[in-house]
Specification:
Number of domains of chain A: 2
Helix content of chain B: over 70%
Radius of gyration of chain B: 18 Å
Shape of chain A: elongated
Number of domains of chain B: 1
Helix content of chain A: 40-55%
Strand content of chain A: 5-15%
Oligomer: heterodimer
Order of helices and strands of chain B: HHHH
Number of strands of chain B: 0
Number of strands of chain A: 11
Distance between the termini of chain B: 20 Å
Largest sheet of chain A: 7 strands, mixed
Chain lengths: 558, 135
Amino acid sequence: MRAKVNFEAIYLVFVFFFLIWASVANLWDHRIKHEFPFAYMASDTFQHQVRADSIKQMGNYKYEAYYICAGYKDCVGFYPPLMYHLDVILSYISGLEIYDVAYLLVFIVIGFSAMIFYLIMRKLNKHIAMIGLPLSLLLFSRGPTTGPGPYALITWGSWPLIFGQFFLICFFWSFSNFDLKNSWIFLAVFLSALALQHQPELAFAVFFVILMIGLWLLKKELNLSKIRNIIIAGVVSFITSVYFLIIFKFTFTKGNVIKWFSVLKTTTTDQTLYLSNFGIIILFIIVGIVLSFFILKKKFSLPIFISLFMMCVGFGNYIGLERHAFKTRCLWPIYLSLFVGISIYYLVKSLTRKWNIIYSFSLAIVLLLVFGGVIKIPKVPYSQRFTSSGIMDKYHWDAFRWIRDNTKEDAKVLFLYGDIYNQDALLRNIFRVPHMVDIKEYISALKNKTIKRNIGIDILGDHHGVYYAYRKSLFDFGFHAEEMGRDYFYNTKRDICNFDYIVLDKVSRQDVLAKYNILIANELLKKEFIRPVFDNGVVMIIKNNNPGEDCIAEETRF
Amino acid sequence: MQKKQDSNNEIKKEIRLLMLILIVSILALKILFFREELLVITRLILAFFWVFIIPGYIIMLYWKEKLRFYERLIIGVGLSGAIIGISSYYLGLLGVNIKYHTIILPLLYILVGFIFVFKNKFFQKKIREDKNNES
């Protein structure tokens, strides 16, 4: 018996590190520490990194950092905070930069999500769980060709959702251990964590509880102990999360409304996964689902119910859940792994008289190699192993760090065109309020062979549908973005002579824009009070020592 | 007495297993991230153990009789992450700088875990004594 348990434990340790190998170890070029945010593929990744960095800097998350909030210092910390706090704590102790720790933790959490779901599947059958677990590798698969897939969920920065799914799986685990003494503790802790991490998953959890109560009522299994557990867990989680849920109610829900019963069949913008993306594995999933109904007919099985439930949530795009449903599908490699396990287990079992754990282990290893892309089989998806430095590079990062370390807090910083600057959350890494020229207007001026002193300049920040919310009282919030109007931030011509620093790229994939940047810089540098303060060949920063003074003609033709 | 001895032996065995997992984790990460310095990896793993593994493991000892070691270990990671993350948010709002949470919170929950386990044992012993007295 002891040997068996150890065998299973070794398998779990092996799978966990296999998941790390198939994903982050390759993506990060087998390095943990990097000189700049490495493999950050989209603006959202920087959004989370900067927010965690700002919490580290401020010491708490009462307020949003002013450079995230267009310069306002009273914006309430509106984003679900749990993940950021863990990032900061781990960053302090490990000595690693936030940008490394925050990203790494996402992969670790994914690994543990798979492990915890294994524990849930194990309640049905240990061998099914072992065989099903390798499907989790498809979390790092390409997914649809028409848009981003599961791996992009990670590399594009849907990190709060991944943490939310992790706590949702923990919540499911606590439900599968409902008979434990004081099991309400798990329910309360994980419901609270969901409330402070990602609310769509909280809604799924609450809906799941309602379904379970209905099911218990039908089966006449709803007893006092269950009611007591749920009530205590509900009350405790409400107390521990009410402060943040008030903020959530008055900020996030304002700009993010669910259009119930609207149908959205496909997406090209949200990360998702379609059943067809499983290739021929879909056959195993379908057979697994059919067999599951036979199992359910005999005896209720919570693991099957959970898998079916999360599969249905993934189809929520047909009832208005839109991106929440599409993104949930990215986690199907975990949730549907049970069906793959069931079908393969019963298929092989029908060929053999007595099952041995070696069979499960051997099948699992083969599946790991297949889904890990070591053995490639046509029509079978596999995890994408690649290395990429992502959007950021050392040149830009050094320039951002220079601004962070050498300028006053209220310095006005303007970015001219840069290839990477359209992913604007990365600009917050200067820890100053970023301003950026309106690119359309900028290109139009270039086409007209002019340099304009007054040009459309955006004040950037994360209004994220919450309109730079600030708190007036416990239940009363104001919104800077509404008070000032959208035009103030995005459609206003501003004088480039009013900025303390101007950041420009000297190198670009569009050479003509880089040359235009340099032309403007040279024109500005004709004034003695404007001097270059940083130049690494790729990025140049010039300082205006007399902001507000005439630094350039109203319109210069070239 | 024998039962207590067995329980202590089991915990000792589990601590040895934890140490083994710690070493295996360091070695595994060193292989996977072979371009990284061993010191960086060791510190990262120790940090992860301090925040996610140890508090969760100790709290989960309360359910030792019902759950296997590795099940407690794995779910303990979720439990630690949840309670430390939530507490850190509120402690920050109360004015305690997050840099102090790195020590305070894991330590607090390790302590809570021990109290939890001790109380559980104390009550179980009391119930056993009461039953003995009744009989």
